[in-house]
Amino acid sequence: MITLQNLTRCFGEHCVIKGLDFRFPERGVVTLMGESGCGKTTLLRLLCRLDRPDGGEIMGLPKRIAVCFQEPRLINHLNCIDNIKFVLPKENNCLDFASNLFDQLGLSDVKESLPGALSGGMKQRLSLIRALSFRGDLLLLDEPFNGLDEVNTSKVAKLIRDAAKQAPVIVVTHHIEEAKLLGKDIYRLEGSPVRALTPLF
């Protein structure tokens, strides 16, 4: 179980998170909401070890963490399928799982294309396929519905809910309609700096 204990992160004299305590469930989707710049992405960076807290600690983080960032971080000189293979273990079933996601999200025809040939929404779907295919012990998604139409938003929401049956998923979004697609565990970051995660319902 991932637990935040007295977590603090400051940038110079400006504290973004201060004294935050929270315990995430072992399974399911937790969606985080809040105003732009309130600290949502900072919290995700701490959870995926791209940043370090100035105080307190994060306990129970697994080693295998999959992340989908706000902006697609694709490898531009690799085609779409090779972008996925880059993060996968060698087992054949992992690639089969990824190929199925290409089918579900309408990207089967662009497997051999380079990311530069894709639209913004297609890049976002490819980034999601990569994160989901990794099948980590924790999945972190920062604005995963960016650039997606209603149909693909619905498909992605289902894939996220399915992934959450196997491992905890933490999602950041600005839109309550998107949050509701993922379940009832929706929390608002409260305070400036953030001092609590408060249930929205």
As residue ranges, the low-confidence spans are none
Order of helices and strands: EEEHEEHHHEHEHEE
Any idea what the radius of gyration is? 17 Å
Biggest sheet statistics: 6 strands, mixed
Helix content: 25-40%
- In terms of quaternary structure, what is this? single chain
Q: What's the arrangement of strands in the largest beta sheet?
A: 5-6-7-3-8-9
| Mass-distribution shape | globular
The percentage of residues in β strands lies in 25-35%
Q: Describe it for me?
A:
The protein has 201 residues and is α/β, with parallel strands linked by helices. It contains 6 helices and 9 strands, in the order βββαββαααβαβαββ. The strands form 2 sheets. Strands 5-6-7-3-8-9 form a 6-stranded mixed β-sheet, sandwiched between helices. The radius of gyration is 17 Å and the shape is globular.
What's this, in brief?
With 201 residues, the protein is α/β, with parallel strands linked by helices. The chain has 6 helices and 9 strands; from the N terminus they run βββαββαααβαβαββ. The protein has helices at 40-47, 80-85, 92-104, 120-134, 150-163, 176-182; strands spanning 3-11, 14-23, 29-33, 55-59, 65-68, 138-142, 169-172, 186-190, 196-199.
Set out the fold topology.
Layout: E1 3-11, E2 14-23, E3 29-33, H1 40-47, E4 55-59, E5 65-68, H2 80-85, H3 92-104, H4 120-134, E6 138-142, H5 150-163, E7 169-172, H6 176-182, E8 186-190, E9 196-199
Helix pairs in contact: 3-4
